Amino acid sequence: MAGRYVGARALAEVRGPRRIFLPRRSSKIAMSEVRHFVHQPGGALRRYVREILWVRSERPRVQVLLPETTLTLALRQSGSALLDNETLPSAIVSGLQQRTRMVEHAAGSTVVIVRFTEVGAPAILHDRVDLLYNQAVPLDAVLPRREIDHIQNILADSREIRQQVLAVERFLTRQIRAQNGSSPQGISPQIEAAAQMIRHSEGRSSIAAIARHSAMSQSALERHFRAAVGATPKGLSRLARLQHVCRLRDTGKSLTEIAFQAGYYDQPHMVRDFRLFTGTSPEEFFRSASPRNLPTFYK
């Protein structure tokens, strides 16, 4: 992860109301020693949290973490992880990132990862998420230590993955209510509509079109969007497009096809944008044997 460990701040990256719980295996050979399960919260929590992942790796592994469109929270249950030769805290939250990051997982690592929705993190972290842009922090920098210890103890005592994931749901719901009494914090419908348009268009919508769709002026959109989402509308659009490029590549499409379908003016434009995030060309990046982030299962 390219958000670094900085004193008290560290890097990180770390179905419906019926709570359908889906076991899945990675399709990548390099991830063959990784077990993971994905769960989509139901009810009111779904507006705040897109999915909860449980990940277990039996062998040491190096993982490339591409920037995502949402903040992530990680609760490590076993093993350890390094970034830039620094051991990461067991509980951490990562803001939106500008560059790819590389993390080393020790053998026997187990971690629960919470992927927020684009607008869901502020209600749980109780802060402006743009303050976390391009960095990550130990979770106790934003939430009470006693709450973190409580959920970590529950995870340590629970042997069933389903019970662990549901415990994390309860933990997240408590954080929302701790800030807002018995009622969850309201999400601005306009900002939510703007973020959803960016996500659904894979980052191809113009800022003017997004402002019209959300019934806001461009200046008001920029101001309120950054505080609620963690980046500007343009910044989030670029992250959404990067993810779309990687998904298209995973389907076997050529770079020329990807550039066209992702809405770039031409292939060199896509290569320049890709290099800004990864420091390398798409050809070099996709030749790497290091596995990337697990995909987002629930769109």
Describe the structure.
- With 299 residues, the protein is of the alpha+beta class.
- The protein folds into two domains: 21-180, Jelly Rolls (Sandwich), CATH 2.60.120.10; 189-287, Homeodomain-like (Arc Repressor Mutant, subunit A).
- 37% of the residues lie in helices and 19% in strands.
- The chain contains ten helices and eleven strands.
- It has helices spanning 121-125, 145-157, 161-180, 189-200, 207-213, 218-229, 233-250, 255-261, 267-278, 282-287; strands spanning 21-25, 34-39, 49-57, 61-65, 72-78, 81-83, 86-87, 91-94, 101-105, 109-116, 136-138.
- The protein has a seven-stranded antiparallel sheet with strand order 1-2-3-10-5-8-11, with helices on one face. It has a four-stranded antiparallel sheet with strand order 4-9-6-7, with no helix packed on it.
- Helix 2 packs antiparallel against helix 3 (161-180) and helix 4 (189-200) runs parallel beside helix 7.
- It is globular.
